[in-house]
Amino acid sequence: MTKPVIYLIVATLAVTTICCGSSCKTTQHTTTQQHSNVQTTSKTSQSSTNSQSAEYKKYSEKLKTQFKGTEDLAMLKEISEWIGTPYKYASAKKGVGTDCSGFVTSVYLNVYNIKLNRSSYDIINNVDVVDRSKMDFGDILFFADEKGKIYHVGIYLGNNNFVHSATSNNVGVKIDNLNSTYYKQHFYKAGHVKGLKK
Q1: CATH superfamily of 73-193
Q2: pLDDT at 120 over 90
Q3: Mean pLDDT over all residues of the chain?
């Protein structure tokens, strides 16, 4: 009578060990898989961040402005493609020729599908005026003569830098600084395009 009892106990222990082993393997496998997924997601996120950092670095060099890393990359790309386009009155053709308002209106149309008024003095009707101390990337800058008549526009980049199509020496689309004597004297107002989220 003793032998069958021992056999039963051994059999039960064997089954328990097999179940435990199987359960442990499953748990261990699942844990490893989850850990692997977390690592993959982390690597993808890090790769994406590195890629974005490289983009901002590239545009910072090309546009001579240190960007924060929150600026709209689509707008940075569009602006950089216009750099060097010669000045041409009443034109707005990338790489061929553009005047100041042609450049500004084209950038907003190409990036945001927003149609601004074509002339420099009319574009101010498309913006909400902001204080100079609160200017942000992409805001439109207005320059006026001694009588207060707007004659020139540009796009604010940051660190007092802005991009515009300059008439002098037919230079065209270039970067300038608001603290330079000429632009400091003629700066009029800055505005954020209506309906565009900050």
Answers
A1: endopeptidase domain like (from Nostoc punctiforme) (3.90.1720.10)
A2: yes
A3: 84
Q: Is the dihedral of CA 197, 69, 47, 37 positive or negative?
A: negative
Please say whether the beta carbons of 66 and 53 come within 8 A: no
DSSP 3-state of 24:
helix
Element (H, E) at 15: helix 2-62
**DSSP structural state of residue 129:** E
Phi, psi of 181 (to 5 degrees): -50, -50
Whether the Cβ atoms of residue 141 and residue 177 lie closer than 8 Å to each other: no
Residue for token digits 């980049």? 157
Orientation of helix 73-82 relative to helix 100-112, angle to 10°: 140
pLDDT, one tens digit per residue, over 82-102 is: 999 999 999 999 999 999 999
| pLDDT value of position 45 | 61
3-class SS letters over 144-187: ECCCCCEEEEEEEEECCEEEEEECHHHCEEEEEECCCHHHHHHE
Q: What are the residue boundaries of the structural domains of the chain, listed by start?
A: 1-62, 73-193
CA distance linking residue 6 with residue 76, whole number of Å: 80
Q: Which one, of 128, 133, 141, lies nearest residue 192 by Cα? A: 128
SS3 114: coil
The SS3 assignment for 66 reads: coil
